[in-house]
Amino acid sequence: MSNSFELTPVEKDVTQLAVCVRGGCKVYGRGVNAATVLKSIDLNVPTGAIYGLLGASGCGKTTLLSCIMGLKNLSSGDIWVLGGPPSLKNGNKIGYMPQQISLCEGFTIRESMTYFGWLAGLSSEKIEERAHFLMRLLDMPPIDSTIGNLSGGQQRRVSFATALLHEPELLILDEPTVGLDPILRESIWTYLLELTTNKSVTIILTTHYIDEAHRADVIGLMRNGVIISEEAPQQLLTKFRVNTLEEVFYRIIITKTEPSVTKRLRFPQTARETTTSNGPALNKHVLKALVWKNFLWMWKNIITIVSIFVLPIASVFVFGSCIGRSPTGLTVAIVNRETEVRTCDLLACHDKSLSCHFLRYLDRKALNLVYYDSEDEAIWAVRNGTLYASIVIKENYTESIEYRLRNRDVADFLIDQSTIDVFCDYTVKDIVMYLKKYIYTSFADFIGDYLEACEISRETVAVPLRFNGPIYGQSDPNMTDFANPGVILTLAFFMAAALTAGITLIERKEGVLERTMVMGVTNLEIAMGHFVCQFGLMLLQSMTPLLVLFYFFELTLNGSVANVITLTVFSGFCGMCAGLSISSNFEEERTAAYVLLGMFLPFVLLTGMLWPIEGMHPFLRFFTSFLPLTIPAESMRSVLQRGWGLSRPTVYNGLIVINVWALIFLGISYLGLKFRR
């Protein structure tokens, strides 16, 4: 091929070039950790030319291409692409084939073509027409083949066809012919030359095949972030008086040729500013493609989606079955020195064996009574961990308790004889508290019934303190009702966060997200595409635990179901925003999982789910009130237990906090995406 493109040190008009870069610098990091990837780079790509970009791995080629496509911003310098500054809104004009496949491996070729065709605004008929043409050109496998089942070379052909699908003005190809046989490579080059000749398509490609560089109109040799040579292949051969480009590249690198000084061009002012689209913020055909793709991905990963529903249901079942129930089957030692009788008649006044009656009140489902002859043996069993407590009744218990009940002046000896000694293992607080309450309640019932048998009011010996019926809640509150609000909101938050972060990071790891953005899709459109799909999942994900708690575990509900659902849904929405912020600032699913795990335990401990915040250290009490779920959990508790509505500050403050945190997470996402560029 004759090379008809010649570059002079200074182009007269920057608008005559398809791509032009002047003094382009790209720096990652700051201060001593700063890494300069592009160093005052100058690049000239004529319209309708094939530009071969050559360079070793790590020299900055991929970063330069990302800046040209608008995925990244230059730290300094000017750049001009297709008559204007780089913008993702040039997406329909640019076709991009990355070095990786960057396609959903679970999709078929037809589905992948449909997705990217819809993003480009093509009709289904046009997509079908172009797909069949490219399949014949590239000798691709059947159109309904799954991409993940294809060989590496076949996958690259599908990737190449995707870049060509919408007939772009600028093609950016990263190693397009790697892994292809010579005949197919020749066919591809013939088609590329036809595009530049007949349709004035501009092509920038990187390649490791130096023999392919002969076919390019212009060759740019890149080294250490700088274009050190940019000329037509024949000019390079003439300049260095050699016969092969291999020798040319060797001489350029050995002599460390510096790039020629390019006069600073006068760029239009818009080339220095970030462009904004005058079109609609949300494109209908783009949203259609994104939503369709996301639903299709979910369908093809149905096991993952089902597990997402099963996990919160299983968690609620485990929680409801394990937490908040009263202990049963506690083994307690009994040492009754008064009598060996274990079967009593009905309780009557002046009964001669009150200790037997007390043990009858005590011997219910909650306790397993084990009788011992010796107090030392019983206490040793508690020390040995065999028993939870030991109850010791003295010899003259009945006489002593009767005398104590009927007289005011009682000797210390009689007080001691009428007192039942209890020795407990205080290791587990909840068990000890339950034993104390159970034994005390049993004794109060026993002594009250005995007094009434003697026609004496049980209030005579009652503590002169009356706890009336509850204003809110139940007379016998349980841990389940206390923890349920936090459990519901925590599950809704973290399940939604994990789903959003996981799907987004998988999409980015496969390269689909980057390729989608090159097609001109904005971050807002991507977020809305995920929101539409995942909001429905989040609703089901949030509602199913509620249904389980209401139906199987009789969750207390004194307020409006609508308010419960509202708090749960907004908690899930906040979780979606949190997942988006995580995926915007981290690259790997493993890192995102670590972040979510690191957040989970503090949320459980600090949101008042397992312990009232009033019992925390004063500093933590102040700090925890700013967490996303602390105030909302109290709002949910007020709806469930107190029956309050949205007119109460305690309830609507929870909604305010959730939405404020959702905005904070969205802001973090925006900053993460901005600094990523």
UniProtKB/TrEMBL annotation:
Gene3D superfamilies associated with the record: P-loop containing nucleotide triphosphate hydrolases
Stored CDD domains: ABC_DR_subfamily_A
SMART domains xref list: AAA
Family annotation (Pfam families): ABC2_membrane_3 (PF12698), ABC_tran (PF00005)
Residue stretches spanning the membrane: 486-506, 527-553, 559-580, 592-613, 651-673
Main location: membrane
Protein name stated in the entry: ABC transporter domain-containing protein
Classification of source organism: Eukaryota, Metazoa, Ecdysozoa, Arthropoda, Hexapoda
